[in-house]
């Protein structure tokens, strides 16, 4: 959903993608054999509370915290991103792929 929000945003891109183009990109990624989709499972709210207990979460950080809680629920400890907001979550190993 974050990709959908960013890729279709006219203030971020001069020529943003259409929602349909973004969904087609997502579908293509999900069809790759080494990609899996994460979703909330039982106990997600408790994990979200833990994750957001260390960082004041509001506004744009809500989507990041949601992703961080999903990662924690699925025991994924490393995230490759250039978004420095993820550095606020101390247990997460954040790596910038462009560094």
What does the model show?
This protein is mainly α. It has two domains: 1-37, no CATH class; 44-95, no CATH class. Helix content is 41%, strand content 6%. It has helices spanning 2-7, 19-30, 44-53, 61-73, and strands spanning 78-80, 93-95. The protein has a two-stranded parallel sheet. α3 packs across α4. It is globular and about 35 Å long. The model has no long low-confidence stretch (mean pLDDT 94).
Sheet with most strands: strand arrangement: 1-2
Query: For this entry, what is the oligomeric state of its chains?
Result: single chain
**What is the string of SSEs from the N terminus onward?**
HHHHEE
- What is the arithmetic mean of pLDDT? 94
How many separate structural domains?
2
Largest sheet: 2 strands, parallel
Explain the layout of strands and helices.
Layout: H1 2-7, H2 19-30, H3 44-53, H4 61-73, E1 78-80, E2 93-95
Parallel strand pairs: 1-2
Helix pairs in contact: 3-4
Q: What are the salient characteristics of this protein?
A:
single chain; 99 residues; mainly alpha; 2 domains; 4 helices; 2 strands
What is the structure about, briefly put?
This protein is mainly alpha-helical. 41% of the residues lie in helices and 6% in strands. The mean pLDDT is 94.
């Amino acid at each position: 959903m974050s990709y959908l929000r960013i890729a279709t945003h006219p203030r971020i891109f001069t020529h943003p993608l259409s929602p349909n183009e973004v969904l087609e990109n997502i579908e293509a990624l999900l069809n790759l054999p080494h990609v899996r989709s994460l979703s909330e499972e039982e106990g997600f709210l408790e994990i979200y509370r833990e994750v957001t207990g260390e960082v004041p979460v509001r506004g744009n950080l809500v989507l990041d915290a949601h992703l961080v809680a999903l990662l924690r629920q699925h025991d994924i400890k490393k995230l490759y991103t250039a978004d420095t907001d993820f550095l606020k979550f101390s247990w997460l190993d954040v790596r910038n792929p462009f560094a």
